[in-house]
Fold:
Amino acid sequence: MKHVLSVKQFLDKDLLASLFSRADQFQAMPAAEYPKPLEHMTLATVFYEPSTRTRLSFETAIQNLGAHLVTVENAADNSSWKKGESIEDTAHMLNAYVEGIVMRHPEIGMPARAAAVSKVPVFNAGDGGGEHPTQALLDLYSIQRMKGKVDGLKIALVGDLAHSRTHHSLANILSIYDVELFLISPESLAMPEDVLANLTKQGVTFHILTSWDDVIGDLDVIYMNRVQKERFKLIEEYQALKGSFILTNEIANLMKKDAIILDPLPRIEEITVEVDSNPRAQYFQQAKNGLYLRMALLEYIYTS
Amino acid sequence: MKHVLSVKQFLDKDLLASLFSRADQFQAMPAAEYPKPLEHMTLATVFYEPSTRTRLSFETAIQNLGAHLVTVENAADNSSWKKGESIEDTAHMLNAYVEGIVMRHPEIGMPARAAAVSKVPVFNAGDGGGEHPTQALLDLYSIQRMKGKVDGLKIALVGDLAHSRTHHSLANILSIYDVELFLISPESLAMPEDVLANLTKQGVTFHILTSWDDVIGDLDVIYMNRVQKERFKLIEEYQALKGSFILTNEIANLMKKDAIILDPLPRIEEITVEVDSNPRAQYFQQAKNGLYLRMALLEYIYTS
Amino acid sequence: MKHVLSVKQFLDKDLLASLFSRADQFQAMPAAEYPKPLEHMTLATVFYEPSTRTRLSFETAIQNLGAHLVTVENAADNSSWKKGESIEDTAHMLNAYVEGIVMRHPEIGMPARAAAVSKVPVFNAGDGGGEHPTQALLDLYSIQRMKGKVDGLKIALVGDLAHSRTHHSLANILSIYDVELFLISPESLAMPEDVLANLTKQGVTFHILTSWDDVIGDLDVIYMNRVQKERFKLIEEYQALKGSFILTNEIANLMKKDAIILDPLPRIEEITVEVDSNPRAQYFQQAKNGLYLRMALLEYIYTS
Structure:
C-alpha cells in the first residue's frame, strides 16, 4: 500500500487490528517518545475545501512523527487550480518538493487522480461525496477502543444516510465484521443501494428504519451525523429535513449504560449540548482518537 | 493562571515585573539558547479575523520555545464555524490535537467561551471590541523597558478612545501604577465611562482633553492609535474623524527629548512617515518587544 | 548581496556557477545531511498573490536548512495591507519577528520597497509584471544541469513574450552567455523593446519569429509559458491569443533527440499532456530543480 484513497484498501481485520493496536500505543506514549519515521521529510496538506478538523489532525500527526509541514489552507482560491492547472500537474509539482500529500477536494476522485501520477504517498482527506478513509478508520478505531471489540455489536447509523460520505464508508468497513446494523433515516434520505448491496453481499444483518424508538435501548453504538447543507441542491429540502433526528439527553438515557454515542463532528444540532456531559457521549474522544489513528497510519505507510 | 483572557488577570505589579524581566532576558539571549518549555507540544493559532502582526508574533514565540505549530489563517471562512459549529465545540475539537490555542475573534467573549470548556490554555489574541491582553502587556512592557519605570510618568492616550480596545486595556492596566493620564480625543470619541470609572476607583489622576496643545511638552509617553474603520457603522462618521489627531515631526519635536511615541500598529495616517526617524519614535521596537513578551508569557503559563 | 530582488544581481557567471554547483550537491545529498545555516531563525513567506509552487518550494527549502517558518498564504485579504498599512511598515513589522522575508506581490516594486527599509533579507518571489529572480535562476540552472552547459546553445522562448515576466528575466540572464535566442510569438505579443535592447547591447544573436516551423529541429532548449489571463485587460484579447502556440508530441518529436522542453508551470494548454512522457519533457524536473536552487541561494545569502 502506497496511497490511502479508500476504505476498500482496509477490508482486512489483521491490518486493522495492527493499526489500532499501534494507535493505542501512541495514546499511551509520552510525546517525547514518539518515533520519528518521517524525519527529514516534508509533507504537504492541500485543502481545496476547508476542514479544520481533518487538516489540523493530520498536521499534528505529521509533525509528531518528525516531518516538516507545508500547507495550502485554501487551495481552491490560492493555488494554480484556479488558473486551470490539472490535478495531475499539481501532483507532479508537489512531488518536486514533498514526500507526501494530504488532499481534500470537493470533487470525487481528485485525490485518486493525483495518486495515479504521484511517486509519493497521497492521502485522501475527503473527496466530496466520495470517500474519507481516515475518518472511517478513526470511527472504527473508536468503536474498537471504547467497546473493546467490534464483532457482536449492535450499531445504528442515524441521520442523512443518503448524502453522508461518513456513514457510507463506515457501513462499508463494518461489513467485514459480525455486526448488526440499524440504518435510521427519513425515507427520502435512506442509505444508497450500492451500500446496501455490499452489506447484503457481505452477509451483514441490517435493518432499515425511519425511527429509533423500537431499538434505542438495544444499541451498543449510535453514530450520528449532521445533515450537511452543502450536499443539498435546494435549500428548502435541507430546511425540511435537517432536524429529523435530534439526540437529546432524554433519548440518550434510554440507551444502555455502556452504549456510546459517536459523531464525526462538527455537531450542528443533531445532538443537543446537554448530551455532552452524558457518559455515553464519546464524540470528542473520537476526534482525539483520530490523531493517534493518523499517526499509526502515517507510520505504517512510510515504514512498511 | 491557565488561560490568558483579560488584562484583569495581570493587575499585579510583581507578576508584571517578573514577566518583563524575563522578556528582557529573552531579548538579550542568543536564539540558540532559548529554553524549550513547549517541546513535544503543538499549539494552534486560530484567527477568525486577520491579524498578521499578532499571529506571526505568537507563531514565532511558540516555535522559539520548542512547540510545533498548526494554524488557521482565515478561520472565518475555512473552519466549521461557517457550518454552524459552536465555539465550545471548536475548543473541544482543538483540545483533541493541541496543547494550546491562540484565538482571535471579531466577537467579544469568544475566547472566554472557548476557555470555559478547554483543558489546554486559551490565549485571547483579540476579541472584537473586547480585550487584547497581550497587546496591553507588550505596551506596558515597552513603557517599562524604554523609560526604565512606569510610576511617575505622564502618559497620553490619543485618538479614537471610544472604540480602541487597545487604549481601554492599556488604561486599565496602567491604573495600578502611579501615573498621570491624558485622554485626548474628539469629544464624540471620548473614553467610555467604565474605563473612566475604573481610573477613578484606582485613584489615577487623569485629564480629558480635546487637544494636545497644552500638554505635549510635558508628556513622557504618547500612545497613538489609528481610527479603526471597522469599528464604525457609518462610513461618513469614519471619514469625518479619521484625521483628528495626526502626529507630525513638528509636533513630535515639541515633546521632551526622552519622550517616546508608541502605536500598536498598523499605522495608517495617525503618525506621518517622517516621524519614523525621530529618536522618540519607538513603535517598531514596541512590536519587537511583543515577541519577547509573548515568549515570557507562554513560558510562564506552561511552567508555573 | 543581502536581498534578492532582481536577476540583474546575478549577471556574474562565476557566482551562477557556484550556486548551480551547490544546488547539484544538494540534489545528491541525503536530506539527513543538509546543513542547517538557518538554524534558530524564523523566515516568513508573505504572499499578496497566490503561488503555491513558489511558496511551497521556498517553504520546503527554508525548513530543510533549519529555520522555522511562519506564513501568510493570502496576504491580500488577511494582512494589514487591507487596512491601509504601507509595505514599508509591513517590512518594519516583519523585521520585529523574523530573519528573512519571502514576498510575492501583484504590484511591481513592492519587494524592493520592503527591502529598502528591511534589515533582514527580502526575497522577491514575483512582483506582478516585474521580476521573479529565483524563477530565472532555476530556469538557467535547469538548462545548465540538463544540457551540461549554457554557452553555445540554441534556445527558443515561445508564447506571450510581451507579458511573460519569466521570459523577460530569462532573456536578461541568458544575455551574459554565448547563446543564440529565438523569440517566437504572435506579433502582438512580441518581446518588449527594453529586453531586445539589452540583448543587442550584450551582443547576443537573436531572431524574432512568428512561427517555430523553420527552427524547431535546430533547438537545444524550448522554453514555453502559458498565456496568462491575469495580464490582459480585455478577455477577448486573451481568448484570441491563448492558443497561439501549442506544443504537441508531433511537434516535440521534430526536435533533436537531446533537446529539452521547459515551462515554468502551471501548464495550461501550451503543452499537451501527451508530451509529458516524451523524454524531452523536463518541466517537472525543472520544478524540482527550483527547490535545490533556492536552498543554494538561501545558504549563500545567509552565510556569505
